[in-house]
Amino acid sequence: MSANVTVRHRCRVCDSHRLYSFLDLGEMPPANAFLDKPSGQESFPLEAVVCEDCDHVQLRHTVDPELLFGEYHYFSSASAPMSEHFDAYADAVDDRYLDTDPFVVEIGSNDGVLLSQFPDRVGVLGVEPAANVAEAARERGVETLVEFFGSDVGARIRDNYGRADAILANNVVGHIDDLHGLMTGVDTLLASQGVFVVEVPYLVDTVANNQFDQIYHEHLSYFSVRSFQRLAEQFDMRVVDVERQSVHGGTIRVHIQRQAAGRSPTRMVRDLETLELALGLDGREAYDEFAHRVDRTRTGITKLFDRLKTGDVTIVGYGATAKGNVLLNYCDIGPETLAYILDTTPAKQGTYSPGMHVPVREPAVFYEDPPEYAVLLAWNYRDAILRNEAEREFRKAGGQFVLPIPAVDII
Ligand code: SAH
Ligand code: TMP
Ligand code: ZN
């Protein structure tokens, strides 16, 4: 096998070797590896397994993080709904946890969109390995270390800046292969009454809503509340609260503190634990059924495109999302079907999608010469996109959106 990928034989949370494989999406290139020109790219296996001891869902393979995050094309601030989400998020953390002279560290701080929302009295530091993205954060005035967070970086930050009152990590904990190294770093850096706040896509939403396109090489873990409980307890910490949110198709915000801080878990923590067990996420069957639905979805998507293509119509992709690239690769949809994918991120415009080589264009192309169909690859922003004035005009003029997830639909 390639030197750029390793196979896991043990669970990332509990170290068990009892990993049950339930979904194989085939080989494909990394979902954010947009290309300057259509050319060959290394593909890696994409196989999901569940640990039969602690029920943590994860990928069998780990692609070298330097390859995935050395240069990165995802800028959080490119999606307006996420900027709004992070604005409210900063206020919530400030109100609930920060006092005088607070210090906040963010892991995977990307272009600084969250940290820049904190008021001036809050000291902030970002940790972001993608140099091109970290540069954008610095331009926003957010001090950023270009590093992969782990136990050593946690210790260095504590020595140079002091302990953190809050450590934030959004849509990044699933990206980290060594979860014990992450937690050791958090343990070293976190103040005694401090909080570690994590947002991740919620396994319950991923499975219940057929979101197989959330599964890609960057996402090594698919968390339940129970996964976090199991991880936290190994570091004398506990999950003290959880909030369910609609961003990215269903996310949980998990609040973790030291057991010694003395907070007891809220009712929501217990309720979600109960829900996860009621849905059978501690057994094989729920995952086998999910895999069947994924297979049927591919058939549905392929049939719909075959039908649409028989007419003299133009079909485009809306949103050059990582998840969209999983869907296109898994369903084998390329430039013979999609004329282009439009995206608001300048760094993606003019590139070609990984694997399928669909050109990525700026949104103006779409507005100036509207196609008949737009496949909503950014289905997680469905409501915000459909509310836009220009998209309302597109539909009024007869254009239609194809929604691939949770089930194929034309809207
Ligand atoms: N937190 C942002 C970005 C999520 S994308 C948001 O929610 O929108 C994941 C980010 O984590 C990328 O910018 C990636 O470069 C970064 N990342 C990946 N591995 C990391 C690690 N070990 N430590 C810190 N950041 C990491
Ligand atoms: P995400 O689903 O991983 O957040 O990626 C969203 C991508 O979609 C990102 O590249 C920005 C793009 N996008 C648009 O092109 N138009 C939009 O209206 C929104 C919300 C996002
Ligand atoms: Zn396990």
Count up the helices.
13
CATH architecture grouping of the domain at 76-284: 3-Layer(aba) Sandwich
Bound molecules: S-adenosyl-L-homocysteine, thymidine-5'-phosphate, zinc ion
Query: CATH topology of the domain at 76-284, what is it called?
Result: Rossmann fold
Strand content: 15-25%
What is the rounded Rg? 21 Å
User: Briefly, what CATH class of the domain at 76-284?
Assistant: Alpha Beta
Q: What is the typical, i.e. mean, pLDDT? A: 97
Q: What is the 3D form?
A: globular
**Unreliable stretches covering 5 or more consecutive residues:** none
Question: How are the secondary structure elements laid out?
Answer:
Blueprint: E1 5-7, E2 19-28, E3 44-51, E4 57-59, E5 61-63, H1 65-69, H2 80-97, E6 103-107, E7 123-127, H3 131-139, E8 144-145, H4 151-161, E9 164-170, H5 179-189, E10 190-201, H6 203-208, E11 221-222, H7 225-233, E12 237-245, E13 251-258, H8 267-278, H9 285-309, E14 315-318, H10 322-331, E15 341-342, E16 360-361, H11 363-368, E17 373-376, H12 382-387, H13 389-396, E18 400-403, E19 409-410
Parallel strand pairs: 6-7, 6-9, 7-8, 9-10, 14-15, 14-17, 15-16, 17-18
Antiparallel strand pairs: 1-5, 2-3, 3-4, 4-11, 10-13, 12-13, 18-19
Helix pairs in contact: 4-5
The structure holds S-adenosyl-L-homocysteine, thymidine-5'-phosphate and zinc ion.
